Amino acid sequence: MYNRAKTIHIALFALPILIFINISCILKFNKPHFCTENPNATLSIALRSGTYADVISKCLRDFEMKYNIRCDVAEFSEDALHKVVTEDKAGSYDLCMVDGSWMAEFTSKRILANLTDLGYELDEDIIPATKKICYSDGALYLAPYYGNVSVLLVNKLMAKEAGFAMEEIDSIEDIQKICDFQKKRHNLGFMTRGDTENNIVVDFLPILLAHGGWVVDENNSPTIDTPEFKRAMETYMALMKTGRTAKKDDLIAAIANKSAAFAIGWPGWYTPTRNSHMDYIAFSGKTTKDGERHNASIYGIWTIGIPRYSRNKKHAKKLLEYLMDKEIQKSTIPFGGVPCRYSCLLDEETLHKFPQYKAVCEALEGGVYRPIMEEWPKFYTILGSEMKSILNGEESISMGLYQAQRKLESAMMK
User: Which residues are CB-neighbours of 182 under 8 A, at least 6 positions away?
Assistant: First the structure.
């Protein structure tokens, strides 16, 4: 009797622990597993947390069931993901997400497996410009998975009040007119992010591209102290006078609630419906109605690749092929997925439910990757700091750009 009571007591004591362990495992990997107790392989996947990881996790149940391969998912912030992937020499991860701006570093340090050698290639359905970052010396190392690309966030009602339908907003000149109109009504016009040097630079880049400028030349040498950059700064500051800086969530709320008219944003931030007042369009890359059109959308694409030290490359390739399948990618759209495929973005059924994907496709077609250089974090930190001084009125545009050019030239030589 005593032993039985003791056994029951131990079981009751252990039950909450077992439940806690089980819940912890589910939370860690974001889902239970659907393979058998004896899977053919176990893959460890390192993903960027948020919507990016969510859409991949939604696909894994069917993959596990189909191939009897267990997938353990670990989610990380952007900086943490960069750290774990670059420092992994033990083969801890078999598939990982990679920000496009990391490609130069990952190539020089040989962090990724050569997908061409593994027998994988990208198909023609993928938007051509999104593939550019994926190759090095003719070999494929990455596949463009999540088509994050800068778009113009717009409050449709505020544009209409200023006399513009969404399809009529065709230049920075039009944006300025709408912002000036709303400013006179004591509303906010153009919202920007000013919380980090990276955000200051990235939000400005579409305006710079529309003026025919860029931050580096073909040799990755700084091109900051230029007439194009100066004109772009003047335009940007004129837009900023109609609004204010804010963090992402406050910026989105202001436009959605008809407090502000415009901002540079990203599809992953917000999913408009037919009834919502906030929508987004592809930025035209024109300064005036009759001006030259430039590619002016900035890529923030999240790619997927296989780490060089993975010990499960064969099965990791199978997962990569599965995730890149056009039907699988199409199935992620209701959960916030943004494929880089024409067949997904321009699908009639997709556009009926999510008409904004036409704008996303246009933005992806005219997208530009941030400079492919290992020094990019150092670069945008220096540039963003000088731009912040200009925007806060601490330096003139001419002096600030001169200082940025000199500092970047010095930093790039080290």
Answer: 158, 161, 162, 188, 189, 242, 260, 261
Six token digits for residue 402? 């001169």
Average pLDDT over every residue of 272-294: 90
DSSP string, 29-74: HTS---S-SS-SEEEEEEEETTHHHHHHHHHHHHHHHHH-EEEEEE
Alpha helices (runs of H) in 163-267, residue ranges in sequence order? 172-184, 197-210, 227-240, 248-256
* CA–CA gap between residue 47 and residue 94 (Å, rounded): 11
Token reading at 263: 């901002």
CA–CA dist 107, 63 (Å, integer): 29
Cα angle vertex 367, ends 121, 200, to 5°? 125
What's the sign of the alpha-carbon dihedral 148, 375, 411, 129?
negative
d(CA 105, CA 111): 8
- What is the C-alpha separation between 315 and 71, in angstroms, rounded? 10
pLDDT category at 31 given cuts 50, 70, 90 is: low
Compute the chain's Rg from CA coordinates.
Answer: 24
Residue 59, Cβ density class (10 Å: 0-12 exposed, 13-18 middle, ≥19 buried): buried
Q: What does pTM read for this prediction?
A: 0.85
pLDDT, residue 30, reads 45
d(CA 47, CA 303): 10
Amino acid 110 reads R
Angle at 286 between CA 284 and CA 290, to 5 degrees: 120
For residue 213, the surrounding DSSP H or E stretch is none
pLDDT band at residue 270 under the 50/70/90 scheme = confident
Dig out the tokens for 49 from the structure: 């947390």
- Classify residue 270 by its DSSP letter: -
Counting every residue, how long is the chain?
414
Which is nearest to 212 in space by CA: 300, 296, 129, 297? 296
Cα–Cα distance measured from residue 239 to residue 243, given in angstroms and rounded to the nearest whole number: 7
Task: Note whether 216 and 409 are within 8 A (CB).
Answer: no
